[in-house]
Each structure stands twice: as structure tokens, then as C-alpha cells.
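Note to self: keep these together.
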Amino acid sequence: MSYTETKEKLEKTDILNIFYNGCKPKSEHKIGLEYERLPLKNNSYKMVDFFEDKGVCNFLRRFSDEHSWNYIVDEYNLIGLKKGHDTITLEPGCQMEFSLKPEEKIEDIKNKVTILNNMMKNLLDEFDFSLYEYGVSPVSTYKSINLLPKRRYGIMASYLWGILSDVMMRETAGIQVCLDYESEEDAMKKFRIANMISPFVTAMFANSPIRGGVDSGYKSFRALAWLNTDSDRCGFATKFNKDYGFDDYVNTVMNVPMIFISKGSDNIKVNGRLKFKNYMEDGYQDNYATLDDFKLHANLYFPEVRLREFIEIRNHDCVNKNMLYSLLAFYKGIFYSEDALNQVDAILSKFTYQDLSELRYDVPKLALHAVVNGLPIKDVCRELMRISYVSLNEALNNEETYLEPIMEFVEAGVSPADVILLNWNGLWNKDINKLMRYLKSA
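Structure:
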């Protein structure tokens, strides 16, 4: 099959313009947040279902009625809400995600999260469930969690071949941080360093050791699930080559097997039978590649760090006790200071691609007790945290104070998961109620 004269062929330059158009002057650089939480019933701590009377669907309907948010629908199903630039959407297991308009100040993001939480409080009490800041479902496992009735989720669930892909989709909750870039050079430098730093940050914020009511043997079971989802579309999107550019990233995405094509109300299953580059050249079943097709395909690519009109860093467990803002501050201190970024680059460039690939596989089990090339990563993490703290302090915005909740852990060489496990095997005596009270406490 080939393009006819009546079809306008998608060119790579059309795709590259997505990234070039994302370049912004430094004065306009902001930080963005996508923040998933687990909706758990107050008594059993099981995941809340979409369809039940006091379930997530009816909760969103009521919230929309009370606060005038607009529906996001898939066919006839309510799958989220939108107001201005902010959205409340649902992941495959009904994990609830806030995606907030990027802001220059972390305080503005915190205020928005606080406002939304306060808006939801009475309704959550009425529906008898809570939103927990934790990386994996602590009681329910994927076999008892129904898939959200969003058409693409069903296609993804049947396609993703990793042994823990269902865990990833239905059980996990993470945090994504979005950063701006000034130019292709700036973007690719940040992209390279964001990839190199990712296993260290996963370790620092590991927060999902208890799954299915027992100690899973991993400090970040969420990170383990991503390791076992689909190696064609997960992992590092670069081998840390300093010459890597927008064109290279596009080539990487174009060589990922396609899952499906969306045309109007139809989703056409491809199931890995061709790559996007082949679709661009030859089409598929009388369909021809468009820019929207590429954007969909790129969104079904799940690396540790994803390049869009901004840089999306994806590798963090959901965390509680204000460590959400520690995560934002950590990245802001490093990636929005050229001096801090260069210091981090010098530290991480000592490690090879192989070193960091092996670390990525060690971190889910060991977190800050992992070793990279013979060096305890907790020592590296302390230095990374110090660089971010100094950078924020020098900016004179008092944002270094947001680092304090996680710095206490990093200085002690432990992750949030280590504290949970210490109590789980000690004072809590493996009592799930005590874990949940701890997770819910401020």
C-alpha cells in the first residue's frame, strides 16, 4: 500500500516542529505536575470501583455538579473532568490524577492542590473513601480491580505483554514532573541528565513496599511493575549520547511498535504488527499517518523520561507528608540552574549507560541501599540533594524549605519505604490499619 496523490504525506519535519515549538525563553520556564492517587475505601482499603453506587464515576458527577467542572467522556463514559488548564482524570484502575497548569512557583501548585483537596473533602467523606498518596494498591491486586471503561485501556491491557503490565495499569500511582526548555541544545541536555538521574530519584522516593497486604520484598513495587510492562516502550529513551537531538528522539519513537490507530470513533488495533515509520511510509488499512497519529503513538511510549513540548519525568512513586513538593523542588533546583545542572552532569557522567541500566533494575528492591559501580547510591543522592538545596537557596525564593521532608530521609540513607518496613515489621506488627493511618497522616 502506498500514498495516493490525493493524500498529503506526514513528513518528519511536521513532527520535529512539535519540539521546536516547545522552546521557550528562560523567563517563561515553569514547572508542571501530574499527580496520581489511590481511591481506597475507608474501612477495607480496597480500591474503589468505577461503577458502584459510591464509586468513582458518581463521585466525579457530583463533583462536577457542585463545582462546575466540565465532563471528559469516552463514548458514553465519564472518564474525567476539566476546568481551564486543570484536569482530574482516571487511570486504568480508577487511580485519580490531578494534572495542573504549570506554575513558576511551587507555592502556587501547592495552593492549587490544597484547594482541590478541600473542595473534595466533604464529598469524599460522603462517598466513604479517601485518596491515598502511595505507590501501589496496598490491599487489592489487579485481579480484583476492574478496568476503567475507556476504550484504549482495553486495547492496551490486551496488548502489553510484560508479566506485571496489569499491575502497572490497575494498581500503581505515580507522580510526573514537567520541565520547560529554551532550545534543542537545552532540551537534550536536560533530557540526558533527567534520564541519568532517574534511578537515583526513584530510589529516594521509593514508597510502595506493601502490596496485597504483605511485604512484597521490594521497596518500590511500582518501579518493579514498570520494569515488567513492555521493554519495547519502557526504560531509557537515550543511551546518554551528548549528540542526541530532537531528530534522534523522533527516530526512537518511530521505531516503537504501534498498539492501535485512532480514527474518529474507531480504534484500529495494530498490536505491534508495524512501527510508526512503516505507517508513515505505507499507511495501514487505507489509513494514512497524521500528526495526531504520531502524538497518540508517542503517548503510548512510556520511557522513564518522555520528550514533548516539555520534558516529562515519569519515574516516581506517589509520596505523602509533603514530599510531593520536595520532588518538585528537587528538580527545579537542579534543572533551572545552569551551574547546578553542570555539577550534576559531572557527577552522573562518571557512570556508564550499563551502570545506570543495571541500577535501574536494582533500585526497585534496594532503593537507597543499591550500589552503582561500587559506590553506594545514598552517597550520590546526598550530593544531588545538596546541589539542589544550594541552588534553591541562592535563588532567594525560600523554596529550599520544600526539600526538608525528603532531606531528612536522604541524610539518613533511607527512603520512605524503609521507614514503612521498619514499622511494619516492628511496632505495627504487620497491621494494615496502622499502615493506612500512617499514610493518611499529614
